[in-house]
Amino acid sequence: MLHGKTILLIIGGGIAAFKSLDLIRRMRDEGARVVPVLTKTAEEFVTPLSVSALSAEKTYRDLFDLTDEAEMGHIELSRAADLIVVAPATADLIGKMANGLANDLASTLLMATDKRVLIAPSMNVRMWHHPACQRNVATLKSDGVLCVGPDEGNMACGEFGLGRMAEVPDIIAATSAALSDGPLKGKHVLVTSGPTHELIDPVRYIANRSSGAQGTAIASALRDLGAEVTFVTGPADVPPPAGVTVVAVETAREMKEAVEAALPADAAVFAAAVADWRVASQSGSKIKKKDGALPVLEFAENPDILASVSQMEKGRPPLVVGFAAETDQVLEHATAKRLRKGCDWIVANDVSPETGIMGGAENAVTLISEVGAEVWQRMGKTDVARKLALRIADEIA
Ligand code: C5P
């Protein structure tokens, strides 16, 4: 995907800059030319010598370096690139970008370009959650800047949380997606996936057997067609795909909130196996075993996320796709479900135990829309995902 492409890599001054050295190598392995730019603070973390050695290019550092201007002015430097990647994107760089400041080479390049920009934020968890940073990131996203990460985990400063720079394979995947001229380029697609866990008490929950495999494959296929994908996932067995924005949730109610926060979208695919009921009598402490006495669970109905999005009066995604996992009378039930929920398409499948579909590698689906039902032969979940992604592209691209 990166073959023959020129990537202008702006390395900001954060501890994650050491990962950018590996990023340069991986981008070059994928066939890209990587032109590196270091901010002043980045030089405190990695040296221009290492960066040049790995990129086999001059490392650009200073706006007022006359030799650089003679060789290649800052306008020219950004004009020659197919994509600008900022990794790590520090809170400072993000703030400058969002506010149009241009007082050094990196920020000037970012102002002087009309190319796509992908940022990989990296900072302390509190800096990331600071309203100013969140405001700046939201501004950048609405300006069309792409964002990969940050991830959650241990931080160099000893804290834990969101703020770690995305891993190199994720940045590579996001770079490929940003460079792809796929039919879904510039489109935002929301995908829900996996089961939900409904808590009984702090240590017990009710779940279902969804592995998240089909939803994950759909998110990957949409990404490969160039879409910007928000992937809202319950606790699944398979890891989420690289190069998509992952929002991990546990319960149906958290999933609904995450879905609403991810809108607007050009299309939404609801592949999650959302629990229909939650435990109304959820206990705040672990329910103790008492001799002879059995606990009684009372249930309450969960919100129907698909139905509520399908029936939105304002801001409804132009294409809403639901899934129907049925064990009998698949077609009848799924057709009725499409009308009841108000979605545009239903992807129906038979999850009777003898089909081996739930948790398996294959799927046999029927696509139901306003115009009727279309039976797809049994195929791998990845192929189902590709076929569905192409159909979505036909519809909204
Ligand atoms: O009603 P049922 O669960 O069979 O419908 C399946 C479809 O509805 C799936 O697309 C699923 O993701 C979605 N759904 C939902 N919220 C629920 C229940 C199901 O989004 N609470």
Poorly predicted runs: none
Which ions, cofactors or small ligands are bound in this entry?
cytidine-5'-monophosphate
Any idea what the CATH architecture of the largest domain is? 3-Layer(aba) Sandwich
The largest beta-sheet arranges its strands as 12-11-8-13-16-17-19-20
What's the count of strands?
A: 21
Structure report:
The chain has 397 residues and is of the alpha/beta class. It folds into two domains: 6-179, Rossmann fold; 188-396, CoaB-like (Rossmann fold, 3-Layer(aba) Sandwich). It is built from 14 helices and 21 strands. It has helices spanning 17-29, 48-55, 66-71, 74-79, 91-99, 105-111, 125-129, 131-142, 168-179, 213-224, 252-262, 305-310, 330-341, 381-396; strands spanning 6-11, 33-38, 83-89, 116-121, 146-147, 151-154, 160-164, 188-193, 198-201, 204-206, 228-233, 245-248, 267-270, 277-279, 299-301, 319-326, 345-350, 362-363, 365-369, 372-375, 379-380. The protein has an eight-stranded mixed sheet, sandwiched between helices. A five-stranded parallel sheet has the order 2-1-3-4-5, with helices on both faces. A hairpin with a 2-residue loop joins strand 19 (365-369) and strand 20 (372-375). Helix 1 crosses helix 9, helix 5 (91-99) packs across helix 8 and helix 10 (213-224) crosses helix 14 (381-396). The longest helix is centred in the last third of the chain and has 16 residues, at 381-396. It is globular and about 80 Å long. 46% of the residues are buried. The mean pLDDT is 92.
